[in-house]
């Protein structure tokens, strides 16, 4: 097929409100019902305003109405699959085209957060199996693959991989590298790095687990070095859905009764609590091969992420996070420099993040690697004065990478097979 690039202005696409601005408004406590009503009014007055329909989908999901939000999104994408995000400048320094999948609100790299307030203009092309690309696409300086590896998005990622072979502009985050981030493959990629502990993860189905309970299969035969207690979660789950620690074999059947999924990821549990009994989970972002501290969550429970750590209620926790961010290269980054550098080399992506911890013996414990982890600057500066400067450093590094990897569009018209 032929990709035809035309001057972006010729497409006359209206900007969406977009994920970053809508999430910020929800984060600040704005009434989502009011935003919903306003967008419904816009769509009813102008059914061809697909931008408003896509924003409506986001509001529904922010309001925990995921099924409705995805239905609205599917209908909108059946009409159009190319969108423009707001840009802080009327004369953008760069134009980026992001390849995205039809997915829920956390399903693609939230690149809007990384570019918000910049003079870089973002166009998002949803690659939907069964639908052709638009006849014309905006000329751009660089493209970026925002689609993570997952069962639901694998066909999309395969199509992007095919398109990437002859795309007329440089592409960041090569699809073939993204495949390696799935939990059961990441262990094989990183497990022999000195200073790294990454528990083996096995993908098992309900029948496999039932066989363990019934004594038909031995857990060591099915899961390798995994043993009780173990961590289990449904394949494709996000934000901790279905994530549990099973202490003994008798806990498997009640878990399967509670969760109706067919496939699960299982790995051994690692007690990564510190001497004070607190668990610390770190998010580290890699931009162009360099590691940056993103956040630190501290709580008395192993299954934590930033939203349930209640960092805002503890000056002591925030003080520790401030040191992690401001002194990253001299502290956490220095302790794990060799491991972080080797992780960046082996993963080989231009942009990704890891969630990690430190074991009781000082190793870097890897939970997951992902290109869709949210990196944002929404936290109130009066409570988190140290966060804004660090986020801006990450955003600046991301913009610098885009510029360094871009190729001037040159002519106003280009074609590629």
Topology overview:
Layout: E1 3-6, H1 8-11, H2 18-27, H3 32-45, H4 50-62, H5 66-77, E2 82-84, E3 94-100, H6 111-115, E4 120-126, E5 137-138, E6 142-145, H7 154-164, E7 171-172, H8 175-178, H9 183-190, E8 196-197, E9 201-205, H10 206-213, H11 219-223, E10 230-234, E11 244-246, H12 252-258, E12 263-268, E13 279-287, E14 290-299, H13 315-326, H14 332-335, H15 337-347, E15 351-358, E16 364-370, H16 387-405, E17 414-416
Helix pairs in contact: 2-4, 3-4, 4-5
Summarize the entry for a quick read.
With 417 residues, the protein is of the alpha/beta class. The protein has helices at residues 8-11, 18-27, 32-45, 50-62, 66-77, 111-115, 154-164, 175-178, 183-190, 206-213, 219-223, 252-258, 315-326, 332-335, 337-347, 387-405, and strands spanning 3-6, 82-84, 94-100, 120-126, 137-138, 142-145, 171-172, 196-197, 201-205, 230-234, 244-246, 263-268, 279-287, 290-299, 351-358, 364-370, 414-416.
Shape: globular
The biggest beta sheet is recorded as:
5 strands, mixed
What is the domain total for the residues?
Answer: 3
Distance between the termini: 6 Å
Q: Summarize the amount of helix as a percent range.
A: 25-40%
Work out the helix count: 16
Query: DSSP strand (E) fraction?
Result: 15-25%
Description:
With 417 residues, this protein is of the alpha/beta class. The protein has three domains: 177 residues, no CATH class; 69 residues, ATP-grasp fold, A domain (Dna Ligase, domain 1); 121 residues, D-amino Acid Aminotransferase, Chain A, domain 1 (2-Layer Sandwich). The chain is built from 16 helices and 17 strands. It has a five-stranded mixed beta sheet with strand order 2-4-3-6-7. A five-stranded mixed beta sheet has the order 8-16-15-13-14. Helix 3 runs antiparallel to helix 4. The longest helix has 19 residues. The radius of gyration is 22 Å and the shape is globular.
């Amino acid at each position: 097929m032929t990709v035809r690039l035309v001057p972006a202005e010729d497409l006359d696409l209206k900007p969406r409100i977009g994920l970053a601005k809508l999430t910020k408004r929800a984060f600040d406590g704005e009434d989502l019902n009011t935003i919903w009503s306003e967008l419904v009014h816009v769509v009813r007055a102008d059914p061809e305003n697909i931008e408003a329909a896509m924003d409506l989908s986001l509001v529904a999901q922010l309001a925990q109405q995921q099924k409705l939000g995805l239905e609205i999104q599917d209908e909108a994408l059946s009409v159009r699959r190319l969108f423009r995000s707001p840009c802080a400048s009327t004369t953008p320094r760069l134009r980026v085209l992001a390849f995205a999948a039809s997915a829920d609100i956390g399903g693609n790299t939230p690149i809007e957060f990384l570019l918000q307030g910049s003079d870089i203009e973002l166009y998002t092309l949803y690659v939907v199996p069964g639908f052709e690309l638009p006849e014309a696409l905006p000329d751009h300086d660089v493209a970026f693959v925002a689609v993570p590896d997952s069962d639901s998005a694998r066909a999309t990622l395969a199509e992007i991989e095919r398109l990437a072979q002859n795309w007329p502009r440089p592409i960041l985050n090569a699809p073939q590298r993204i495949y390696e981030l799935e939990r059961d493959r990441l262990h094989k990629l990183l497990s022999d790095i000195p200073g790294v502990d990454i528990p083996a993860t096995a993908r098992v189905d309900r029948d496999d687990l039932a066989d363990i309970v019934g004594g038909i299969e031995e857990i060591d035969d099915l899961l390798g070095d995994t043993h009780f207690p173990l961590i289990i979660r449904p394949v494709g789950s996000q934000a901790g859905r279905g994530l549990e620690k099973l202490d003994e074999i008798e806990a498997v059947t009640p878990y399967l009764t509670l969760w109706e999924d067919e496939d699960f990821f299982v790995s051994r549990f690692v007690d990564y609590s510190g001497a004070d009994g607190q668990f610390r989970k770190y998010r580290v972002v890699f931009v162009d091969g360099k590691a940056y501290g993103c956040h630190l969550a501290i709580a008395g429970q192993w299954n934590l992420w930033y939203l349930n750590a209640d960092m805002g209620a503890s000056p002591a926790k925030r003080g520790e996070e401030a040191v992690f961010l401001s002194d990253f290269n001299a502290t956490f980054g220095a302790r794990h420099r060799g491991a972080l550098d080797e992780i960046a080399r082996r993963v080989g992506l231009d942009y990704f993040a890891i969630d990690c911890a430190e074991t009781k013996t000082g190793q870097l414990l890897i939970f997951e690697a992902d290109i869709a982890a949210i990196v944002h600057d929404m936290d109130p500066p009066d409570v988190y004065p140290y966060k804004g400067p660090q986020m801006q450093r990450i955003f600046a590094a991301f913009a610098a990478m885009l510029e360094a990897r871009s190729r001037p569009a040159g002519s106003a018209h280009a074609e590629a097979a």
